């Protein structure tokens, strides 16, 4: 008879239980998270000493929880005013996007304000980080640097320096000798993060942990890591572009719909309070196939330019290529433009892209994509002072989008005087002539009228 095993294996991510070990959890599809679970034990918890007596909530001092500015206004915008003492921030991003440079700037800025900062690097040597700090001007006597990969040594540096800001780059490279598993594994990451969070809360140290990302862009490691920290930031950017964006995925102390824009160059990383100019091309005469739109990144309106090129082809399957735009969304707009708008695109190659490396994912850019393609197909340029905002539906209708007034106000600030928008845009800023389009045919008709003027 076959022996029956009494062992139980459980996924540390979702709690899925199985009778045998699996490399991948069939429930949450996570790798390396199935571990053997011990036999349940009945434990009795008795009341113990408390760290501090309970008080009425109105008598709790809130001064210790006030955010302190980091010295980078764009980062403070995303954090909700700055770093809160004792808060733990997880910053994730792709390799080479500039996470270490940004946090070195933050540590140097806090040191200049009188707050002792400690940077613990586990991915680079101290000499390599020193060279970068000298290049970007991040040298200060209150900024300390340590190259460690052991958790106990890291806690020893915290004990000796007693910083107000702790930066760990990265949490996947730190390991504990008391826990089994390779550095970066689920067990190691959970233990290291728990120890650093415990020290941050006990000593009231603002802590920033750098996290890796997987191939699909999600944060690597156990999902419990995102639940333990107070703030989760996503650092985004194309390595071929200088633009970098910081978004708040989770924030216990501020909003999650803000975005910070930075310019990464040889001299470091600089905040961009007005990045709209990066996404517009400058030319003397209007060119067919270009249309300007206004996108919302969080609550910030950004003016961006969409470019399209329609060229005849002899191929049986015409090419469709996009850059900075969702290919599926562009394909849908092209189908609507041909079926509902009467623009013949069947025997042409179509290329659509954005300017400046910005990525447009919201449906409000549909109308600008459609007008840019129609302009290139007709070889007639659009007026340079025109912006287009609106979502295009499969029936050809132009749907309303959020924040039309804020978008038009940003366009008016940059000198645009005409706008093509969905019906009922609300209050229109002074100096902007608004044309309402109910469907794609009305938008193309308005486009023809604007081109004749």
From TrEMBL:
Residues 349-453 are annotated as: Lon-protease-like. One of its GO terms (molecular function) is damaged DNA binding. PANTHER family: DNA REPAIR PROTEIN RADA, DNA REPAIR PROTEIN RADA-LIKE PROTEIN. A motif (RadA KNRFG motif) lies at residues 250-254. One of its GO terms (biological process) is recombinational repair. Residues 64-213 form the RecA family profile domain. ATP binds at residues 93-100. The middle region has homology to RecA with ATPase motifs including the RadA KNRFG motif, while the C-terminus is homologous to Lon protease. The lineage of its organism: Bacteria, Bacillati, Actinomycetota, Actinomycetes, Kitasatosporales. It holds the Pfam family AAA_25. SMART domains: AAA. It comes from the Bacteria. DNA-dependent ATPase involved in processing of recombination intermediates, plays a role in repairing DNA breaks. Stimulates the branch migration of RecA-mediated strand transfer reactions, allowing the 3' invading strand to extend heteroduplex DNA faster. Binds ssDNA in the presence of ADP but not other nucleotides, has ATPase activity that is stimulated by ssDNA and various branched DNA structures, but inhibited by SSB. Does not have RecA's homology-searching function. This is DNA repair protein RadA. Gene3D superfamilies: 3.30.230.10, P-loop containing nucleotide triphosphate hydrolases. Keywords: ATP-binding, DNA damage, DNA repair, DNA-binding, Hydrolase, Metal-binding, Nucleotide-binding, Stress response, Zinc, Zinc-finger. Belongs to the RecA family. RadA subfamily. One of its GO terms (cellular component) is cytosol.
């Amino acid at each position: 008879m076959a022996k029956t095993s009494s062992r139980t294996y459980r996924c540390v991510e979702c709690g899925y239980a199985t009778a045998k070990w699996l490399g991948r959890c069939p429930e949450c599809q996570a790798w390396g998270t199935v571990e053997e679970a011990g036999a349940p034990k009945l434990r009795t918890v008795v009341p113990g000493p408390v760290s501090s007596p309970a008080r009425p909530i109105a008598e709790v001092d809130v001064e210790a929880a006030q955010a302190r500015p980091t010295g980078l206004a764009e980062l403070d915008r995303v954090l909700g005013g700055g770093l809160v003492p004792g808060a733990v921030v997880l910053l994730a991003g792709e390799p080479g996007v500039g996470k270490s440079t940004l946090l070195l700037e933050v540590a140097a800025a806090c040191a200049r304000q009188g707050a002792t900062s400690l940077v613990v690097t586990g991915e680079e040597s101290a000499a390599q980080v020193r060279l970068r700090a000298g290049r970007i001007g991040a040298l200060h006597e209150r900024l300390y640097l340590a190259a460690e990969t052991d958790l106990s040594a890291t806690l020893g540096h915290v004990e000796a320096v007693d910083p107000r800001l702790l930066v760990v780059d990265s949490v996947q490279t730190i390991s504990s000798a008391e826990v089994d598993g390779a550095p970066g594994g689920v067990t190691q990451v959970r233990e290291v993060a728990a120890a650093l969070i415990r020290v941050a809360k006990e000593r009231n140290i603002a802590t920033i942990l750098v996290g890796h990302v997987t191939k699909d862009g999600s944060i690597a490691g156990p999902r419990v890591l995102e639940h333990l920290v107070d703030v989760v930031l996503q650092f985004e950017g194309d390595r071929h572009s200088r633009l970098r964006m910081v978004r708040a995925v989770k924030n216990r102390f501020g909003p999650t719909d803000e975005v910070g824009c930075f310019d990464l160059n040889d001299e470091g990383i600089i905040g961009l309070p007005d990045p709209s100019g990066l996404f517009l091309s400058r030319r003397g005469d209007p060119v067919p196939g270009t249309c300007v739109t206004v996108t919302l990144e969080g609550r910030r309106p950004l003016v961006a330019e969409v470019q399209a090129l329609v060229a005849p082809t002899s191929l049986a399957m015409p090419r469709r290529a996009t850059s900075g735009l969702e290919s599926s969304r562009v394909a849908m707009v092209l189908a609507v433009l041909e079926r509902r708008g009467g623009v013949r695109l069947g025997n042409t190659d179509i290329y659509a892209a954005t300017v400046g490396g910005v990525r447009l994912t919201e449906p409000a850019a549909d109308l600008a994509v459609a007008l840019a393609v129609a302009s290139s197909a007709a070889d007639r340029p659009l007026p340079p002072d025109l912006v287009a905002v609106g979502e295009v539906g499969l029936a050809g209708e132009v749907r309303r989008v959020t924040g039309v007034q804020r978008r038009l106000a940003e366009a008016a600030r940059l000198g645009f005087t005409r706008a093509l928008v969905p019906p009922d845009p609300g209050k229109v800023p002074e100096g902007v002539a608004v044309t309402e389009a109910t469907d794609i045919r009305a938008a193309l008709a308005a486009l023809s009228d604007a081109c004749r003027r």
